[in-house]
Design brief:
This protein is an alpha+beta fold. About 25% of the residues lie in helices and about 30% in strands. The strands form four sheets. Strands 2, 5, 6, 9, 10 and 11 form a six-stranded mixed beta sheet that branches. Strands 3-8-7 form a three-stranded antiparallel beta sheet, with no helix packed on it. Strands 12-14-13 form a three-stranded antiparallel beta sheet, with helices on one face. A hairpin with a 5-residue loop joins β9 and β10 (about 100-105). The longest helix has about 40 residues, at about 120-160. Mean pLDDT is about 75; it is low at about 165-170 and about 175-190. It comes from Pygoscelis papua. Keywords: Disulfide bond, Glycoprotein, Immunoglobulin domain, Membrane, Signal, Transmembrane, Transmembrane helix.
Amino acid sequence: PGAGAQDFELQQPQDKVSVAAGETLTLTCTMSGGGPAGAVKWLKGLGRGNETVYEQKGSFPRVTRVVNESGTDFSIHIRDVRPEDAGTYYCVKFKKSLLGDDEVLQHGKGTVVSLHETALVPSMVAAAVVLCFLLLLGFFVALCMYRRKRRGEVESQCLARPAATGSFLPIPLRCCAGTSGTPRFDFSCDSIHHLCALLQQSSKEDNDIHYADLQPLPVAPQHSRSPRAACSEYASIRVAAQ
């Protein structure tokens, strides 16, 4: 037994381990050289007040061996880590004394376990990226639709204007027989032929006159003008703009 204890070596390589609440913690402990008979335990803390986290006998619902029934690998898994699991863990090899009690043969240097905030899982990151992309795409589509709508309104306004807008200017001609407001034209409002003749004559003299648009004017109030003086027609002549 003495030779076995002398050749025995326990290795606990982890110095510090950080884990998030709810995850699984793995604590590593391996042994070599055989060693004397005795239990192997995982303790949280040393000395008085230590807590047995795992041993070969007993029930530990959240703790399992990494390699079952192994005589050299005593690594363990602790599932569903909780805040109270933070602390320093030791892998301890015991031996039987002459009195039959368990004595500590050797223990590891200890592994400090701490908890950190839960990190964003890749699926959550991917979902956030997709959401941002959809929002940007929706904004871009809305902007394109708004610009297209504005462009359509502008084009509609342009199409609503006469095709010759910018090239011809309208010059309204009114006929009011017997009134002082017609210094240039003197003909009866009841006869459109006079106006047509006048337009034909003007067209011969001025090649810039292209066409005339004859439309009825509203009847003037009876009390302001005599029926004879009421305007009944007008001509709108378009000439080339200077």
